[in-house]
Amino acid sequence: MSETTHTKVLIIGSGPAGYTAAIYAARANLGPTQYLGIQPGGQLTITTEVENYPGFADPIQGPWLMEQMKAQAENVGTTTIQDNIVDVDFSKHPYTATDDAGNKITADTVIISTGAKARWLGLESETKFQNMGVSACATCDGFFFRNKKVAVVGGGNSAVEEALFLANMCEKVTLIHRRDELRAERIMQERLFKHPKIEIKWDSTVDEILGVEVGQGDTPGVTGVRLKSTKDGSTSELDIDGIFIAIGHDPATELFKGKLDMDDEGYLITTPDSTATSLPGVYAAGDVKDKTYRQAITAAGMGCMAALEADKFIANLEAEEGSEEAA
User: Fold this and answer.
1) For a FRET experiment, which of 34, 160, 174, 275 has its CA 20 to 30 Å from that of 303?
2) What was the pLDDT predicted at 218?
3) What is the predicted pLDDT for the residue at 119?
4) Residues that are catalytic
5) Three-class SS string for the chain?
């Protein structure tokens, strides 16, 4: 049976932004409620070694860092809910959200930290073989390709991280990139180039993912990929057992379309030097609004900002209500 509850601060999503917002809101005695979403911890849960998050002399694991943030948020008073928000009503205040179970929660303020999601190539064959050799998460699925040949598509930090992670367990990793140079950080490129198990296919795009479909053989799945040269249009085939797509992410803002201001790419628009969105009491933090830095530390910083702004909004709201009662 569905129920309706109320919170001063509703946090939609997790990751560094959401967990930091929860920590600050809880320590301000606001009793925040946080919906963790379909991927608790966000993109860091599919990241292996993290070397650039301050406070750790040695590399740490992304999933471990997210577990620690979640535990810290809960320890200081955050109520975390393992569910997904499927609808929001911003037409009147307090705002109302509905979760996947049909429960409704009203909130004085809302902090959106839904992050971003993997971008796919858009090939029919890609969809056909998802979960049968096509993946966007090496940490999640790399285990199934131990001692096998795989490919990674992309040229940024995510693609290089995926390739290096897979090289620890796979027989061979081929990085496929449409240009003749990578966008990844220089130190990561150096590690990639030095790794004996990694080969790079420059100036190439994926034309089609090849494999055995369900019902066509005993072991359906990816068997190869057809590549197309961006130089002369020629094609070639590469034998692989799995392919990991790492070409970027799109902000997870479908829930807020038509309800909050966004830019052409779907990122939530916030006031300069603030996390405030186009509606009072609604804030956005992390990759859901940041397409420039996209770092865990900047997301955490924005989560802090959002919680502080929500605290100020609630204080003003309570002061106004107190004045009305006095009158």
Assistant:
1) 160
2) 74
3) 87
4) 137, 140-141
5) CCCEEEEEEEEECCHHHHHHHHHHHHHCCCCCEEECCCCCCHHHHHCCEECCCCCCCCCEEHHHHHHHHHHHHHHCCCEEECCCEEEEECCCCCEEEEECCCCEEEEEEEEECCCEEECCCCCHHHHHCECCCEECCHHHHHHHHCCCEEEEECCCHHHHHHHHHHHCCCCEEEEECCCCCCCCCHHHHHHHHHCCCEEEECCEEEEEEEEECECCECCCEEEEEEEEECCCCCEEEEECCEEEECCCEEECCHHHCCCCCECCCCCECCCCCCCECCCCCEEECHHHCCCCCCCHHHHHHHHHHHHHHHHHHHHHHHHHHHHHHHC
